[in-house]
Design a protein that fits this description.
Low-confidence stretches: 217-222, 300-312, 395-400
Distance between the termini: 38 Å
Largest sheet: 10 strands, antiparallel
Shape: elongated
Number of strands: 10
Structural class: alpha+beta
Length: 596
């Protein structure tokens, strides 16, 4: 009965993952709650994932990554990408392969991609190229690099913990070392890099060119100011259409405020009155001339000048809804977005579609890109939110760069002491976070903001699924059926089967779910067929970490899907050859490494 209940909960979770009816972390919490409520798992067994070394290490690695980013340790790389030395798309892809990918082997790839998306978009905008030519290679390079070491992705850490737990249950020595994956990952990374440099450019589409140009035209000056129409202004009694405002100056009026009411375009025929407030997009020079002629006055005190702070001077930026954002699934009106974030949504970009009408009624989805107009202070506050990723650099977003060298040394020390076995990885990571705070590379308040809590909830809640599969015998039965299918095959054929099943599961569910479901099954297959079960575990790690065909299997794919304007068929065409290559070569290299 327990096995049947576990199977029903598993099927329900798979359906919810595929249909995206609920966020992945909510599906994980639902499955965990049902396993406890049905008595399949005790509360201690179901909640063990939240106390696992994988979750604690993941928390610490998010904080370490934040310390490196916020101390300015990676600013030189951003400057190199955005500078004039990079003249062709192929040069940027080469930089992704040579620098960005290896960096993802020691840092969380999600913040790397979030930081570099606006840099790539700005580079494309200056050269008139669609970002779809570069954003997928950026994501792919970080995915490939994430398997170079154990700490590269949350999937690796989860698989490491699960293999230890499953190994205790099944009687084998589980667990991965920091560089266990490297002998397999390195040659595959070289091949994958060659694919990105020479093959991928012929498969990448030109998408979102129109949307990029429109967004660029909306924000080309990056200077929005709220002004007031004085009682003696020549604008009083005139309409915007007939006034000097838009005939003599390069000015766009984005909003009219009168009393407690706000009016959005079109309002060219609305007669202006003294005291009206206008939200203008204009250059600084035009604003100064308008003030000198007493046509308008700043809504803030005049002494503040054209750089007035607060609500008067505003900026326009793009923000991305990442996977797991609580904003997904609700409309702007339901969220009371303007009141919550003190920001106005001017446009929404979803793939190739640019939405500007009836924005309040559009239901947000993960991967949407919003064009926001807000005061600078509000935008800095948005950077602390894990539910929105600000895709433009805001002034003073980083602490003093004097702390970047201590941050780099601390990061290297964590790698060295854990790689040499001086102390466990989880201990080294926790001590590294404390050291970052002590030297000032990371503020204590940054710790909570740095953590992707949706991923922590997903990993912690799904951890018990593996326990349930082993405890109820369901993993053994699933393995038995696969053994019947592959019993006469050589180890290479068995590993190819394990890899293919896992990678297809990853593409439609999530990498964490794929590991939790298939790792105990693969370990049992290995034991039954007298194949080293850790060889099966390694194949599971690569298959779950490498998602190239859909945006749903890995968060960085989803992050670039909207800004790149991609379609599912674009990713299938681009990612299928890479998936076939990995399916054939990962098992082959695993057979070689384990001497099977």
């Amino acid at each position: 009965m327990d096995a049947l209940i576990t199977l029903l909960i598993l099927v329900q979770a798979v359906v919810l993952f595929i249909t995206a009816a609920l966020p992945p972390e909510v599906v994980g919490l639902l499955a965990m709650g049902l396993l406890m409520a049905s008595g399949v798992l005790s509360p201690a067994e179901a909640l063990a994932g939240f106390a696992s070394p994988a979750v604690i290490t993941l928390l610490a690695m998010f904080a370490l990554s934040a310390g490196l980013f916020r101390s300015g340790a990676l600013d030189r790389l951003r400057e190199l990408m955005g500078g004039n030395r990079m003249k062709r798309p192929q040069q940027l892809i080469q930089l992704f392969v040579l620098a960005i990918g290896p960096l993802a082997g020691i840092l969380a790839n999600t913040p790397i991609v979030a930081t570099l998306i606006p840099v790539v978009e700005a580079w494309c905008q200056r050269r008139g190229l669609p970002p779809s030519r570069l954003l997928l290679p950026l994501s792919t390079a970080t995915i490939l690099g994430g398997t170079l070491t154990l700490i590269g992705t949350s999937t690796n850490l989860l698989a490491n913990d699960l293999s230890r737990s499953v190994g205790e249950e099944m009687g084998f020595n589980g667990g991965l070392q920091l560089f266990t994956l490297t002998p397999i990952a390195l040659p595959l990374y070289v091949l994958g890099g060659a694919y990105l440099i020479w093959v991928a450019p012929h498969l990448l589409p030109e998408r979102n060119r129109d949307g990029l140009e429109l967004l660029a035209s909306l924000s080309r000056d990056g200077y929005l100011t709220e002004v007031e129409v004085p009682a003696d202004s020549i604008l009083v009694g005139q309409t915007l259409h007939d006034s000097r405002l838009q005939r003599r100056f390069d000015v766009d009026v984005l909003e009219l405020q009168r009393g407690g009411e706000r009016f959005s375009p079109p309002f060219a025929d609305r007669v202006l009155s003294g005291g009206d407030r206008l939200l203008l997009r204009c250059s600084r020079a035009d604003l100064l001339r308008l003030q000198q002629e007493h046509t308008v006055s700043l809504a803030a005190p005049a002494s503040a000048g054209p750089d007035v702070a607060g609500a008067a001077t505003q900026r326009m930026v793009e923000v991305l809804l990442p996977s797991g954002s609580f904003l997904a699934g609700a409309s702007l009106r339901e969220l009371r977005f303007r009141q919550r974030f003190n920001a106005t949504v001017i446009a929404l970009r979803r793939g190739q579609e640019l939405v500007r009408e009836r924005l309040g009624q559009v239901v947000l989805r993960a991967g949407d890109v919003l064009l926001l107009q807000a005061p600078l202070d509000s935008l800095r506050g948005l950077q602390a939110s894990s539910d929105l990723v600000v895709m433009d650099k805001i002034e003073h977003e980083l602490p003093t760069t004097a702390k970047k060298y201590p941050a780099i040394l601390i990061g290297l020390a964590v790698l060295v002491v854990s790689g040499l076995g001086i102390m466990p990885l989880v201990a080294a990571a926790c001590l590294g976070v404390v050291a970052m705070v002590v030297v000032g590379s990371l503020r204590p308040g940054d710790l909570q903001q740095a953590v992707h809590w949706e991923l922590i909830l997903l990993v912690g809640s799904l951890y018990g699924f593996s326990t349930a599969l082993v405890k109820t015998g369901l993993a053994g039965e699933m393995a038995r059926q696969l053994v019947i299918l592959t019993g006469d095959w050589p180890p290479y054929g068995v590993l190819v089967t394990i890899y293919l099943i896992t990678t297809l599961t990853t593409e439609v569910m999530s990498n964490a779910a794929a590991v939790v479901v298939w790792l105990p099954v693969a370990a049992r297959i290995g034991l039954d067929l007298q194949i080293d079960p850790m060889a099966c575990v390694v194949c599971i790690v690569f298959a779950a970490s490498w998602s190239f065909i859909t945006p749903f299997g890995y968060q960085t794919n989803l992050m670039v899907f909207g800004p790149g304007g991609y379609r599912i068929k674009d990713m299938v065409r681009y990612g299928t050859p890479l998936t076939i290559l990995a399916t054939l070569l990962v098992p082959l290299l695993t057979v070689w490494q384990f001497g099977l």
